[in-house]
Amino acid sequence: DAASTPTSLSRDWLSVQEVVDAVSSSSCGAISVFIGTTREDELDGRKVIGLEYEAYELMAQSEFTKLCADIRERWPTVTHICVHHRLGWVRPVLPWQISSPHRHDSQQAIQRCIDQLKANIPIWKKEVYDTQDSSWKENAE
Amino acid sequence: DAASTPTSLSRDWLSVQEVVDAVSSSSCGAISVFIGTTREDELDGRKVIGLEYEAYELMAQSEFTKLCADIRERWPTVTHICVHHRLGWVRPVLPWQISSPHRHDSQQAIQRCIDQLKANIPIWKKEVYDTQDSSWKENAE
Amino acid sequence: MCVCVLYFAKSVELTGVKEEIVAVPTPISSRDVWRLLLQRHQRLSVLQDQVVLAVRQQYVAVGDQVVTLADGDEVAVVPPLSGG
Amino acid sequence: MCVCVLYFAKSVELTGVKEEIVAVPTPISSRDVWRLLLQRHQRLSVLQDQVVLAVRQQYVAVGDQVVTLADGDEVAVVPPLSGG
């Protein structure tokens, strides 16, 4: 296998398969993965409903290239490096909003929505792991 | 304002503005928001690198409609309900993978990547809040 | 009657199909519908005691309830849900 | 010389522009480039002591370093980073 250094900045998601293919290598015993995620944050009573990433794209690309060269110099055994950073809007899975004159009602209504959704709406979630396994999840009763 | 019940299942993200517009109403003192997020999980040493959502779409839509009717019956003051659920692939912001013959090297390399990225790559993140404010973040030194 | 059976999530992996046309007698208990699908796809047995069906997009527990089916009706296999 | 100045993130909000052509003397210290931009956009002063510049896509701290500019060179205002 030739060493590879795919890097990308994009407004689209990489498919999981693309990421896995990019670093799978028969000569490599170890693959380390780091995944940054959006977190649910509350700050001064405000909820984060989305994130926006902006880049100086050409320069970011050249800095990524420098970074990869630096990594290879420090750890010459490193075979593959795959780097991907999302740009643009990044949003949570499930934004729900319910409005009412009084907060109490809308909060209770939201709670019922969540409970009922988990119990009744025919949607299924599969987790995909870095080991290339995956498993379908089940909501608790 | 007429009461509204937009619901959607989609492979695309709603723009934040669409979600906010959908429930903004001059007659409403309270808006409750629930946002489900993907979390970084590790299970038996495996990392979750992505999630896939699948739905029985027509039935999910009709169950959403029933759920909204149920909410309105229980909390008649509820004005707007906006429900959105992502389908298809949902992936974290930043998947990195580095491979090497020995785990130790690739783990150290990943750590350096993260540190250098935060210090040198010209990318900026803005958090958008449910109050319609937003703020540009700064990485710690 | 020939109904259209839809599979989702884990049941797609177990059967290898997303949908298929299946001949079923009618009226029939939901338990017998499930048995009939098990005969076609033995591996579905891992979902035994967890699965529910949906007939014309309405949930029906696997049990004594008798359903009347017409040609082209949609019957879905619904593994445990995990939305939200 | 006329260089192309690029603004990102918070500096876009402060100046109201994403890019503009600016006439600058050359050679010039990076501190004087920054002063010149401050004259055009007073609100940029909230980034004072936090900002760095990039000249032809190379970082240059705001300070004594002298840069030589040519027509069309790219000069970027780089507020504190928050990638990752």
TrEMBL record, chains C, D:
InterPro entries: Beta-grasp_dom_sf, MOCS2A, Mopterin_synth/thiamin_S_b, ThiS/MoaD-like. GO terms for biological process: Mo-molybdopterin cofactor biosynthetic process. Pfam families: ThiS. Pathway: Cofactor biosynthesis; molybdopterin biosynthesis. GO terms for molecular function: nucleotide binding. One of its GO terms (cellular component) is molybdopterin adenylyltransferase complex. This is Molybdenum cofactor synthesis 2. Keywords: Molybdenum cofactor biosynthesis, Nucleotide-binding. It comes from the Eukaryota. CDD domains: Ubl_MoaD. PANTHER family: MOLYBDOPTERIN SYNTHASE SULFUR CARRIER SUBUNIT.
